[in-house]
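Renewal narrative, Specific Aim 1. Our central claim is that a sequence can be written position by position from structural information alone. The example that follows is taken directly from our test logs and has not been curated for this report. It begins with the structure tokens describing the chain, in the order in which they were read.
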């Protein structure tokens, strides 16, 4: 009955296990490390997706938006905006987006993007009921100006079919929109939380710049 209810309610696998434990049963779902040998085919699929997205950026993140993998397009974008990252650097994309001193200075429409992003994290916190996601949400809301931004009721009229991220640094302007892909039939807690976020150019100028970087043509900031 516990399994049937959790499945019918689309309860996340981690919470599914918690329900089983509360009912006196053993957990049903495993939580492997992404580097586990039996996840090799999944890692290969993720790498394939990242490669196919070149020269445009793409990243793999966990539910707390910790960066797990990225392609060359993503590395070039980050290097242009904030400089190169150390090979072993721990990166949280949510903090990078919302904090005042990383991407915010270069994101022209930061209020619109962050308002939407915070709502997505709130939805994740409600869906997963996970302490780590709740802690992430609390941390993001403590950044300067974020809590006040979420209290604003006025939402500007949409001027495009999707909300772009409009980066501007010096003479370079980049307008990107994103898609997010997940595994369709995960039977592992780690895999259920994975997201592949792919960035696409919103206009031909952005596409030309990203292709030029891939070809080795630098951009003046």
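The sequence written for that structure reads:
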């Amino acid at each position: 009955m516990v399994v049937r209810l959790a499945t019918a309610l689309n309860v996340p696998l981690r919470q599914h296990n918690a329900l089983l434990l509360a009912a006196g049963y053993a957990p049903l779902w495993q939580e492997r490390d992404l580097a586990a040998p039996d996840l090799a085919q999944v890692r290969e699929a993720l790498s394939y997706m990242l490669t196919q997205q070149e020269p445009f950026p793409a990243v793999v993140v966990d539910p707390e938006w910790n960066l797990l993998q990225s392609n060359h397009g993503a590395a070039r974008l980050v290097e242009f905006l904030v400089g190169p990252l150390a090979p072993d650097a721990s990166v949280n994309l949510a903090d990078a987006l919302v904090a005042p001193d990383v991407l915010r200075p270069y994101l022209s429409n930061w209020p619109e993007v962050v308002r939407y992003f915070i709502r997505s994290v709130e939805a994740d916190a409600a869906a997963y009921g996970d302490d780590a996601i709740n802690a992430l949400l609390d941390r993001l809301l403590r950044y300067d100006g974020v809590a006040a931004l979420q209290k604003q009721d006025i939402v500007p009229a949409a001027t495009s079919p999707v909300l772009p991220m409009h980066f501007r640094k010096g003479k370079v302007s980049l307008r990107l929109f994103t898609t997010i892909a997940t595994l369709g039939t995960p039977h592992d807690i780690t895999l259920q939380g994975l997201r592949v976020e792919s960035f696409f150019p919103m206009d031909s100028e952005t596409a030309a710049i990203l292709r030029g970087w891939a070809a080795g043509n630098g951009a003046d900031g």
